[in-house]
Amino acid sequence: MAKWDFKIVGASFVKELVPIADDVQPRSQSFMQPSFHLEGGKIVIKESGQYVTAIYFSQIGEIDGVAPTDIDDAYAKLLTLVENFNGGEGTPQNLAQTLAIDNKTNDIPIVSNNGNGYAYVNDEQTVIGNDFGGTKKITMNEDSFAIETNVRATIDGKGLNLNTTTDGFGLPRLTTTQMNAIAFPTEGMLVRNTTESKIYQFNGTVWEPLSNPPQTLAETLAVDNKTNDIPLVSNNGNAVVYVNDNYLLLEHGNNALTLEPTTDGLQLYSDIQVYTAAPEMTAIIDNVISYACPSFLLNSEEVATQPYADAKVANDLTASTTVAPSKTAVLTEYDMITGLTFSGAFALDKKGGRSYLPYTQTGSLTLSIGGSPIIGSFAVLRFTADGSAISGYSGWKLLSSDDITATNGVVHRVIVYQYEDEIWYSVKLN
């Protein structure tokens, strides 16, 4: 294997590659102001303090005509060789004389008087730079084109045109701490914030993330390629639509409509008057629709959901239009109980539902299901938290965006529903 010999030629320190059996072409490298550093198993060679090359002991032939015994011996011989370099042995040569030593420009550094400006050219790389006021260096080799600087680079002219179809443009990648530490950022400056995984822009005062364009509903639903269990909520949170395989729930404030594939397929709850434009009310009479609301409007005419305070009442729903059904008849027909006192337990044993009177918490509250719950039953409650603990509902299935909170003074509007082997509940906070 070819090895490098080291010697003094005139006013130059020369590193010369000596071929063995013509394995390589002979070449040399000249230095005017060499220095050496022993770093582990290699010797780093610099020119005027700038890195030029590094060499391992296995690559070293002779130093001033003598072969070293090991890396430490080689390092010592190199220091001895240049100790009196140009110390009266001859006058410094001009650039033309220096280039003429090996009749080529390879590995001849060009360095300014103060050493800040420099250019290096060899078969492996080209380096140009000026370190006055900070590092500013361009390095070109087979694998890379690198710009190294610790001061801000400025391109003046008509702009920057990047022509490529095989690569991209990489923004500076900084953490939030590093981004905020940038000194004197300019308006419009862009960085990739690795902490937030977003692109940030400096607006002249603060850093702010660049927002992504809003998605259409179709794009949002396409995230998991289905519409099941994706709630649609209005801006103020009052209007909510839930769609899944088992039910459809429409809510607005304290009013709710639930559709599910059971015999009690339509559940309607409202704390205000309900209006419908239907040709007849046979559906209600046949118990196909179960509801809890103060009154019902059919074709603009109010239909009582409470017994008339009238002497003309009957305990069934088959009487004439001049006879109002009694409370007993309504409760019997619709299986509905209202005006109940709430104790912490929801009795889910009436398909027509139970409506509890407003309740104010007075200490720790445990929510539970009492009695013998039946499928399709539900209950409604409005209660106010007092800051004490609320528990017991952890195994229930939440259908709404709001959930129960112990925060003092918060008003809860709750619907609890028995579905086969699950308890569903929906909450709307004031």
Describe this structure in words.
Strands 28, 30, 31, 34, 36, 37 and 38 form a 7-stranded mixed sheet that branches. Strands 17-18-19-20-21-23 form a 6-stranded mixed sheet. The chain is rod-shaped. Strand 4 and strand 5 form a beta hairpin. The protein is built from 6 helices and 38 strands. The chain folds into 4 domains: 81 residues; 37 residues, no CATH class; 102 residues, no CATH class; 93 residues. By secondary structure, it is mainly β. It is 9% helix and 38% strand.
Quickly count the domains.
4
Number of helices: 6
Counted beta strands: 38
Look at the structure and give the mean pLDDT.
Answer: 79
Alpha-beta classification: mainly beta
Shape: rod-shaped
Q: Could you tell me how far the N terminus lies from the C terminus, measured between alpha carbons in angstroms?
A: 86 Å
Rg of Cα set: 44 Å
The major beta sheet can be summarized as: 7 strands, mixed
The proportion of residues in beta strands is: 35-45%
Poorly predicted runs are 87-92, 278-289, 306-311
Roughly what percent helix?
under 10%
Quick description:
The protein is mostly beta strands.
List keywords for this structure.
430 residues; seven-stranded mixed beta sheet; single chain; rod-shaped; 4 domains; 9% helix; mainly beta
